Structure formats: C-alpha cells, structure tokens
UniProtKB/TrEMBL annotation, chains A, B:
Its EC number is 1.1.1.85. The record marks 141, 187 as: Important for catalysis. It comes from Lysinibacillus capsici. Catalyzes the oxidation of 3-carboxy-2-hydroxy-4-methylpentanoate (3-isopropylmalate) to 3-carboxy-4-methyl-2-oxopentanoate. The product decarboxylates to 4-methyl-2 oxopentanoate. Keywords: Amino-acid biosynthesis, Branched-chain amino acid biosynthesis, Cytoplasm, Leucine biosynthesis, Magnesium, Manganese, Metal-binding, NAD, Oxidoreductase. This is 3-isopropylmalate dehydrogenase.
Length: 356, 356
C-alpha cells in the first residue's frame, strides 16, 4: 500500500514525539511492505512565528493532498497573550472544521504496568477499556452568535439533526465492533440540543438491535467515570461535554502520557494526535514520552488505512516495552528503567523488528 | 434567636432524611436557645401529584415568608415521562430562579473514616478540603433562545457582567474566609462568556490582594480534580461547568452520601439540600443516609443565621459518629456497625446532648 501523510510537528515537545512516531511508522512500512510518503508543514505557534497564521494556506493545501495527518501538539506561553485569531489552538479548531473532522475518538485503556501511576485504586481502574466519541465540529465551539453584548456576552450551542445523526451513527458502528454497549451523554433535563440528541439516539438504535444503549446525564457520567469507569464501552457526546469528559477519562488509568486520539470524518481521512499537550516545560530535552504519538500512528493505520494487523503490532510492541519495565521520565517509579525519548522509541522498534 | 424555615421534603428518601435533619435542628435549638418555626410545603413529584405543579404558589408564598429553606430531594421514575414543565426538577430550577439563589456552595471534605469508600487512592483523597462555588441562575440553564429549529435545536449561554461580578465576589469572600486560594474555571480559549468571566475575575482580584488567584480551563480542572484534588481551595465557575465539576468532585472522597449544599443570594436567605438525589430504589425503607441533610442544616445555621458555633457542633457530632464506626448501609464496610436512618440520627443527637 502507498499513502501520503502530512506531518505537523507543532510546538513544544510536538517535534520530538512526532519524530519518534515517524520512525515507528517507517519501520512498520518496511516490515509490512507499505510506502508512506511524508510531507512536513506548520501549525500552531510554529506557524504563527513563520507565517503569522496558526493554520497557513500551504498547510491546508498539503493536507488536502494527503490521506491522513499526523499532529504533535500546539501551544505554549510564548503565544498565550496573542489575540484569539493568532493563538495556536485556533489552528487546531480551524483544521478540524476545514476538514469536517466531526468524530473525535479517544480510547482509554488500562496498561497493567502503568496502574501504579493512576490516582484511582487499582481495582477501580484495572478493567477500564472505553472509547469516548466526541462530536468535534459543532455545538458551542462554532455556534453563532458568539459575542460580547452591551452588558455581557453570549455563546450559542447549535446542532442540526444531521450533525447529531452522523456522530451517533459513528458511535453505534464503533460499539458494534467493540463491546456492544453505547452510553449516550446529554443534559436532556435542561437543554433543547440534548433533547434532540436523545431523540436521534432513540431513533437510531432501532438499526442496531445488537447494541445495548443507555442515556446518561453529563453530571452523572462525570461521577461514574471515577466510581465505576469499567462500566463504559463506547461513550458518545457533544463537543463541549466531550471536551470535559474525555479529559477527565484520560487520567483515570494513570496513562495520560500514552493516550492517542483520532479525529475523523465519513471517509477514511483523519487527523491523529496524542491527547497530551505541548508540555513546553520539558521541550527540547529529549525526555518526552512518545507513546501517545506512536499509538496515534496505530490509530491512523487502523482507521484511515484499514491496516489492522499493523496497528495491533504497534500496540503490542508498546505494551511489551512497558511490561519490560522501560519508561520515560513522566512514568518513573521504583524499579523502572528511565529512558530518553529516542531510547524508548528504539525499544519499541526493536520489539517490532525482532518479532518477525 | 428566632427563625422561620420552610421545609420541602420532596420525593424518594427526601422525607426520611429531612425528618432526621429536623430532629437535629430542634436539638441544636434547644441546646443553644434558639426557636426554629417550621412550615411544610411540597415541591417536585409530590407537588405534581397534589397540585399538578412542581412548584406550587403556596410553596413559593411560604418560602417568601421564611428565613431559609430546607429541601430533601426531588424526582423519581414515576414522573420521568412527564413533559418538561411537569417534571420534578423543574421545581428545583424554578425555585432557584424565583429566589435568585445565584450562588451554589458545594463543600467537599475528606472524612478520614470514609476514605476506604473512595475510588481514589488514600494519599490522593485524604487532604481534600475544597468548596465549589457554582453560578446557579444564569448561563445555558436559562438563556434564550432555547428551542427546536426547522432542522435542529439551539441553546444559548448568556451572562451579564453583573451576574458574573456577584458570583465572583462571593467566591473571593469565601476564599478569604477559607484557605485564601481561588481557582476560576472557564473555557476562555473558546467561549466569549468565558472571556468575560476571566476579565471580571482579573478586575475583581485587585480588591482581594490577600487571595491567590489562578485561571484554569474546564477540561484541565476535570483532570486535576482527580489527579490532585488537594490542590484546590475555592473553585468558582459558571452554571453548566459547575454542574459537571461539582458532581465530579462529590465522589472523590467516597462521601457522596454525606455532602451538603447551599444555594444562596446576596442577603442571608438560602436553600439547603443534600447533594445526593431522591434514591427512589431505597425510599421508604428507613435505611437512607441522613448525614448530607444534617450537614445541610449546619450550612443553614452558618450561612443564613450566622450561627457558627452551632454549625460546628453539628459537624463535630457527625464526624464523631463516623469515627465511632457507625454508618448507614450505603457506607457499610468490614467492621462497621450498620444503623438505620433513625438510629444513626439518634447517635448524632446523643453526641450533641452529652457534650454540654
Ligand atoms: C485547545 C482547545 C481548543 C481544545 C478543545 O477544547 O477542543 C482542546 O482542549 C482539545 O480537547 O483538543
Ligand atoms: C436536576 C438538574 C436540573 C440539576 C442541575 O443540573 O442543576 C441537578 O443536576 C443539580 O445539580 O442540582
């Protein structure tokens, strides 16, 4: 197989973790006989510095001519005081919207060898294997009007039925491929958009008799993600709730530094990035944890290219390196061996190479 | 001191836990020489059944002639299919709005003897002592337009500067009385209302040089409430974020069943209720945990009546009964003695009586 990928290293530790992930990608290509053509472009703070634009036209164009995007991270104190249009995260919001990447997939799975780092008791966190499906291009993030008024400010949450239908359908499909359970999250006791959301889920579930569906209020899910995260399989929700709940979910297994994400649309195109941020405080030191970006490449192989075996091989290798007791500094604990970003990546690559 | 209190037992376990809390209130009155005049009225499902209205005019009128309101809980499966206007929680939303109860105070404090019930590791949860201050009468809960449209639905988040100012001021005052730290939560990288919110906090902080202020994004707080809840003192946020974060915070110490809340406005008037719901599945069995409602009475004494010593006495008594190993069924564990709602309340009352 031959594929074109646009690589957007971004800011902070972005370039370092992306370099690691690209190495792993190329090794997988070699081993399974695929050719991945990479093109590099800027986004976020780096793009503001070079082009005075967090998402330059050149970047958009290159992405348009690619099959998938690999992103590091954006942001840093350098640009924190910029006006809204010249802030790094604006590049992120715009690329999502431009490419209509409406489904944000955030898997959270406990790695047994990382559970000591979890704030939760082992017995609460150990069976976690869930996927949050967050609507990413609608809701209050993009609704109009959004403005200052004479004596205050307003934001608007807007959803069309079609927008809800496509994300809900996506979640049902994922539930079918995973554990067969879907939890739809809303605030139907207060919001009109939530009542619409709930109706769409109710209508759609007739097409998926094999999927067990529950509706839960967002406040109640915020509790249950902590008290009983093992309960969940696929969780689907709107943009703002998804932002909060997916970040909440990301810390329950102690593995925030190793969580990947995918932002996809109806076809095979998608953007893949680690859940963690640009971590400016450790940038340039070669100590960042590349696992989340490497696992994001695995998601790319699976969701954009349909390469399941290849994706599984990366996941297996990452797990094996953790099980062998090798960690980057963020996951340090008694008895573990601390490696640099590159050394840790080497371990993953060796694991892949030697497993022919 | 003489005070009038309207008691709204509500639904499910509401009447049972309220009865316990009223007994404790009367004992405190006797011991400290105060007279509390109680009037009873309906709200929620009980009010729908009797008056076809979740917040009848008689109830409003009685509350208007009182100094404070004690509420049990509302809701239950019986009314779940009702149209929005005839649902129990509508009574709650309307009473908040009618009495302009704009500040919802939700303290979360670890009881050492309850930490085994926490999903978090002991070392993460043990130092928790925070107060979430949630704006309760604005934002997307009441903003217009909120409606179905031709092809979808919309909700509107609205805040006036004055609405933000009064809640922020309230939070600063509380921070000054507590640990001197305030975390303001918003989504200023996306929302206009959040940028307004942040500006107001920045302006207000000049009047409180003794309070240490930080701004945090809601997604980041959703994480940190789990990874490092001991970091927080007072946390102030808007209505919808507050709904989610205060429920999230309520489970970190394992003591959801014992958490009180206050909903107050500028003067001394306020509504006090447990954080837990109506728990219809155990209603009428006499096994509900009355601690949260008893502690809500303590908040009433403190915030509406300025009776600090009396409030502290209730808190001390509740703690002592837990430390003695007495629990209601929800908190059962090895070696604990399980008491009924009334028996457990007796223990608290004895503790107060014998401590002259
Ligand atoms: C940076 C910010 C705008 C963004 C969001 O809220 O979507 C981030 O928190 C995320 O979840 O990717
Ligand atoms: C019942 C519901 C409308 C209410 C809210 O969202 O405010 C509840 O969750 C609460 O927090 O008191």
């Amino acid at each position: 197989m031959e594929r074109k990928i646009t690589v957007l290293p971004g800011d902070g530790i972005g370039p370092e973790v992306v370099a690691s992930a690209v190495r792993v990608l190329q090794v997988i290509g070699k081993r399974f006989n695929h050719t991945f053509h990479l093109g590099y472009a800027t986004i976020g703070g780096a793009a503001i510095d070079q082009h005075n634009n967090p998402l330059p036209d050149e970047t958009i164009e290159m992405c348009e001519n690619s099959d998938a995007i690999l992103l590091g991270a954006v942001g840093g104190p350098k640009w924190d005081q910029n006006p809204p249009e010249l802030r790094p995260e604006k590049g992120l919001l715009r690329i999502r919207k431009h490419f209509d990447l409406f489904a944000n997939l955030r898997p959270v799975k406990a790695f047994p060898s990382l559970l000591d780092a979890s704030p939760l008791k082992r017995e609460v966190a150990e069976n976690v294997d869930l996927m949050i499906v967050r609507e990413l291009t609608g809701g209050v993030y993009f609704g109009e009007p959004r403005m200052r008024t004479e004596n205050g400010a307003i934001d608007t949450t807007v959803y069309s039925k079609a927008e809800v239908e496509r994300i809900v359908e996506n979640a049902f499909e994922l539930a079918r491929l995973r554990g067969g359970k879907l939890c739809s999250v809303d605030k139907a006791n207060v919001l009109e958009t939530s009542r619409l959301w709930r109706e769409v889920v109710e209508a759609k579930k007739k097409e998926y008799p094999d999927v067990i569906v529950e509706h839960n209020l967002v406040d109640s899910v915020a509790m249950k993600l902590i008290t009983n995260p093992g309960h969940y399989d696929v969780v689907v929700t709107e943009n703002m709730f998804g932002d909060i709940l997916s970040d909440e979910a990301s810390v329950i297994t102690g593995s925030l530094g190793v969580l990947p994400s995918a932002s996809i649309r109806g076809d095979n195109f998608g953007l893949y990035e680690p859940v963690h941020g640009s971590a400016p405080e450790i940038a340039g030191q070669g100590v960042a944890n590349p696992a989340a970006t490497i696992l994001s490449v695995a998601m790319m192989l699976q969701y954009s290219f349909g390469l399941k075996e290849e994706a599984a091989e990366i996941e297996r290798a990452v797990s094996a390196v953790f099980d062998d007791g090798y960690f980057t500094a963020d996951l340090a604990r008694d008895g573990s061996r601390i490696l640099s970003t590159n050394e840790w990546t080497d371990k993953v690559i060796n694991e892949i190479d030697t497993s022919f």
